[in-house]
Design goal:
With 223 residues, this protein is α/β, with parallel strands linked by helices. The protein is built from six helices and nine strands; from the N terminus they run βαβαβαβαβαβαβββ. The strands form two sheets. The chain has a five-stranded parallel sheet, with helices on both faces. The longest helix is centred in the middle third of the chain and has 16 residues.
């Protein structure tokens, strides 16, 4: 089965790609949407330059579709992206990194079904702590790019997540109900290196905070 991976630059889509490569599937391409709206209901807002660097290091062609990021309307853009991937790479299916969002999962399923594509979500309802631990232990270079939750301060932005950080996230979960994997919008990530990357990606960045627990990383240079 020829599969394309919905890729957002972050840990969940990277884990999805990693899973299918480990399973020996025929991964054909990475598919990314770039929403103008930073609070898109469906998609992260990655850097196009970073996406291109990641795709180059991972060794896959990248298809990018821009979208306003408006609720429901962005699904039209998703469908256009899937349609192009089906034509250009003859894919049979798409892989998505959804963990627990029924909203996202149902809508991606619907768009794919209309195009005759199967949808697979290998992380769906998996143990979020175990998944993040597996990625950290495999030496994936995961960095937070956006924080929006009590307990997450500026110091979390741009640092490579380690096992000790996972323990801190687990404590936040115990005290506040914080979603360890960030599925509730608590944080967003990028991945700069790991066992499926041919070379590490280096970034220079600065941070911009709106409040003590809400802010983002601004990438200044990518190498």
């Amino acid at each position: 089965m020829r599969i394309g991976i919905l890729f957002s630059s972050g840990k969940d889509s990277t884990a999805t790609l990693w899973y299918y490569l480990e399973q020996g599937w025929d991964v054909c391409c990475l598919l990314s949407l770039l929403p103008k709206n930073p609070d898109s209901w469906m998609f992260q807002n990655p850097s196009k330059e970073l996406l291109e660097k990641q795709a180059e290091s991972l060794g896959f062609p990248l298809l990018v579709q821009r979208t306003e990021g408006e609720k429901e309307k962005e699904l039209v853009d998703l469908k256009e992206l899937l349609k192009e991937a089906k034509i250009r790479y003859d894919i049979d299916a798409i892989g998505v990194g959804a963990l627990a969002s029924d909203y996202q999962h149902e809508r991606v399923n619907r768009m794919a079904h209309e195009l005759g594509l199967k949808t697979f979500a290998p992380l769906w309802h998996k143990n979020q702590v175990k998944l993040l631990r597996q990625m950290i232990e495999a030496d994936f270079d995961i960095r937070m790019t956006r924080v929006a939750a009590d307990g997450l301060t500026e110091g979390w932005l741009g640092k490579k997540l380690q096992s000790i950080d996972l323990k801190a996230l687990e404590k936040l979960h115990e005290h506040t109900g914080f979603h360890v994997a960030g599925e509730g919008g608590e944080y967003e990530t990028i991945v700069l290196d790991g066992p499926i990357f041919k070379n590490a990606i280096k970034i220079e960045f600065e941070t911009e905070m709106e409040s003590a627990h809400r802010g983002e990383l601004k990438i200044k240079e990518i190498q």
